[in-house]
Fold:
Amino acid sequence: MTLVARRARLLRALADGRYHAAEALEKALGVGRRELWVLLRSLADLGLAFESSPGRGYRLGRALELLDRGRILSAMAGDARRLAEDLEILPEIDSTNRYLLAKAGGPRPGHVCLAEYQSAGRGRQGRRWASPYGCNLYLSVGWQFQLPPSGFSALGVACAVAVARAAASTGLGGVGLKWPNDVLFQGRKLGGILLEFVEGNARARRGVIGVGLNVRMPAPAAAEVDQPWTDVATALGKPVSRNELAGAVIGQLLLALGQFEAAGPAPFIEQWRRYDIMPGKTAVLRWHNGHVCGVVQGINPEGELALSIGGETRHYAYGEVSLRPEP
Structure:
């Protein structure tokens, strides 16, 4: 059994946050005292701390709600559940997007991958995405898109709307969206979406939609985040089930992807406008070799950002937006 598999078994045993006797853990894992100690010390690699007490054993510094396939599927509507039969949960991975993209022939449509921990989670522009163990949601959905090239510019809009719907389904009011696909709460980053594709012909491309959503971010991991952020539990003021939220996010995404292919971007453009926090604000749009500054006019029917620059409205299909422009 690999280190990752043994560590996953140990964490399932300790997830309740209570003390467990060393002898019971050794028996459950089939290891000796020295091997158990090595496994416990390796939890620090995942950002987890444990406590020991003579006569009582070991426990985690905080309880974990680990992902459960049955609970996730039961939280999804029937139509979405049928699309998500190929659902996989991994204890540790470098990146859920990278994992699906590496599949032979590209990711299968409807293949869903979730992870408890990512060692190399990525956001837009190659930024590191903080991915502490068992705290937030890190998931990717594989899909095959039968679309003309012009249809892909609005895909991020559709996916962001789906994630915003899922976040709002927890009772969270005030969810907002920042183009192209950032999910916010009161101006703070709640989650993001990363779309990546396998090279193919112009009309049939396989790709993945990666979602990172902050659910209950521990303070040590938060130190890695370089922008204002929040998580669902803090925004709601109460705990939220990761499994139920995962079911809501995956369900909304799968239904949105089917609707996007059937009806195009139009339904999502209108819904985006309900969540859009940007219209009327001055923004800087940057790309690899340039930038522009203008006043945001929303998005056009193709999902492109509309900026008013010197009295002229221009449209942009890609770029990174900052609502905190430098003078």
User: Anything to note?
Assistant: The chain has a mean pLDDT of 89. The chain has three domains: 3-60, 69-275, 282-322. The first helix runs from residue 3 to 14. Residues 282-322 form a domain with the SH3 type barrels. fold (CATH 2.30.30.100).
